[in-house]
Amino acid sequence: MAGIIGTKLGMTQVFGEDGTSVPVTVIEAGPCPVTAIRDPERDGYAAVQLAHGNTKEAKLTKGELGHLKKAGAPAMRTLVEFRTEDEHQIGDEITVEAFEAGQKVKVSGISVGKGFQGTIRRHNFQRGPVSHGSHNVRAPGSVGASAYPARVFKGTRLPGRMGGRRVTQRHCEIVEIDTERNLLLIKGPVPGPKNATVEVREDG
User: Is there a domain that residue 87 lies in?
Assistant: First the structure.
């Protein structure tokens, strides 16, 4: 299964042959060096570990630096494993050439954090009446029984922190690939803010 790590640069649009506008997300992906190989006999599963995102050596531990130097890679801040049966060698580089236009992929990343939100925005609740002295405009209302069970059940939809969690967007289509600038143009939005680190995997 093809996979790569990238940085979300933002959104733009491209035009098809018939002149229609297609919204796309631009991801700067790779080149990602292979820093480790997982063997089914030794580790119980087959995978490759890729590195992404150049950083200062001072921001990494000696163990992390030693691990990267064994693979001949510079200081990089992100390591991700991708399950695959394909054969790779430590030190190989994975680029956007592993994908092709029209291919379906899934993109994983940390969604945009929206802070502490109420039930109307977080769970799409409806508000109460706003006239005749109503005090239940945006309040969540009753959430539990009285004497028994005398507690709020786990999983009840209540106000709380929204966003800022790992999300995977599936069935995304690659519209265009720029091998010279290591860019993937993926149709529609993908999780995360600008400059967020995302993982692109083959879907299916």
Answer: yes
pTM of the model: 0.85
Same domain, 100 and 59: no
DSSP string, the chain: --EEEEEEEEEEEEE-TTS-EEEEEEEEE--EEEEEEE-HHHHSS-EEEEEEEE--GGGS-HHHHHHHHHTT---EEEEEEEE--S---TT-EE-GGGS-TT-EEEEEEEPPP-EEE-HHHHH-PPP---STT-S-SS-----S-SSSS-SPPTT---SEEES-SEEEEEEEEEEEEETTTTEEEEES--SS-TT-EEEEEE--
Range(s) of the domain holding residue 87: 32-94
Specify the number of domains making up the chain: 2
Together in a domain, 62 and 87: yes
- Statement to judge: residues 61 and 84 lie in one domain: yes
Give tens-digit pLDDT for 106-155.
999 999 999 999 999 999 999 999 988 888 899 988 887 788 888 888 99
